């Protein structure tokens, strides 16, 4: 079994998409083993996206991610990292496959509703960024 970090980003929460995203996660066969709602500070968003600190969109991205509440979830499944990225769809929703969350709901390359870890090392870092060992079930 593998674990990955999912975030329903501030645009998804503000637009009332928490239930829709969680429905797709559950129907996709993932087990939710940890969950919380949080409003990131700018510094917390910068720490989370530190790998992107040299990218031109870093300032906008961290402003957006700290602009309102978000939902962090730890998903467990066989091959969870790749499967969650498949369910999310491509970063740019215009290139995302039919049936994916971003294709259905994203409005912008930045405001793309959901986040997912991209590798085992980043999943471990990202999960521990939000959750401590007492916050998991199952
Ligand atoms: P995430 O890490 O949020 O799951 P991702 O792995 O598909 O998304 P990354 O390349 O890691 O994409 O970029 C992180 C986030 O930065 C994207 O989800 C998006 O919100 C934003 N982003 C990525 N590329 C751009 C861009 N060219 N312009 C503006 N924002 C961008
Ligand atoms: Mg990424």
Strands, count = 4
For the largest sheet, list the strands in their spatial order.
Answer: 2-3-1-4
Quick one: overall form? globular
Order of helices and strands: EHHEHHEHHEH
Small molecules bound: adenosine-5'-triphosphate, magnesium ion
Structural class by helix and strand composition: alpha+beta
Q: How many H/I helical runs?
A: 7
Radius of gyration: 14 Å
Strand content: 15-25%
Fraction of helical residues: 25-40%
Main sheet, how many strands, which sense, barrel?
4 strands, antiparallel
How far the N terminus sits from the C terminus, by CA atoms, comes to 12 Å
Can you tag this structure with a few keywords?
binds magnesium ion, alpha+beta, 138 residues, single chain, binds adenosine-5'-triphosphate, globular
Can you give a write-up of this model?
With 138 residues, the chain is α+β, with helices and mostly antiparallel strands. The chain is 40% helix and 19% strand. A four-stranded antiparallel sheet has the order 2-3-1-4, with helices on both faces. Helix 3 crosses helix 4 (58-65). The protein starts with a strand and ends in an 8-residue tail after the last helix. Bound molecules: adenosine-5'-triphosphate and magnesium ion. Adenosine-5'-triphosphate binds next to strand 4.
Briefly, what is this?
This protein is an alpha+beta fold and 138 residues long. The chain contains seven helices and four strands. The protein has a four-stranded antiparallel β-sheet with strand order 2-3-1-4, sandwiched between helices.
Write the layout of secondary structure elements.
Layout: E1 2-8, H1 10-14, H2 18-27, E2 31-38, H3 42-48, H4 58-65, E3 70-77, H5 80-88, H6 101-105, E4 114-116, H7 120-130
Antiparallel strand pairs: 1-3, 1-4, 2-3
Helix pairs in contact: 3-4
Bound molecules: adenosine-5'-triphosphate and magnesium ion.
Residues 57, 61, 91, 109-110, 112, 115-116, 118 line the site of adenosine-5'-triphosphate.
């Amino acid at each position: 079994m593998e674990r990955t970090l999912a975030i329903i980003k501030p645009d998804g929460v503000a637009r009332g998409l928490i239930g829709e995203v969680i429905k797709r996660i559950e129907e996709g066969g993932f087990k939710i083993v940890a969950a919380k709602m949080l409003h990131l500070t700018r510094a917390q968003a910068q720490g989370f996206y530190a790998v992107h600190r040299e990218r031109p969109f870093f300032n906008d991205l961290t402003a957006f991610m700290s602009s309102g509440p978000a939902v962090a979830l730890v998903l467990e499944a066989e091959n969870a990292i790749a499967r969650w990225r498949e369910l999310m769809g491509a970063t740019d929703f215009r290139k995302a496959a039919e049936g994916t969350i971003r294709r259905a709901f994203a409005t912008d390359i930045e405001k793309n509703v959901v986040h997912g870890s991209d590798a085992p090392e980043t999943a471990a870092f990202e999960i521990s960024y939000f959750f401590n060992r007492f916050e998991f079930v199952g």
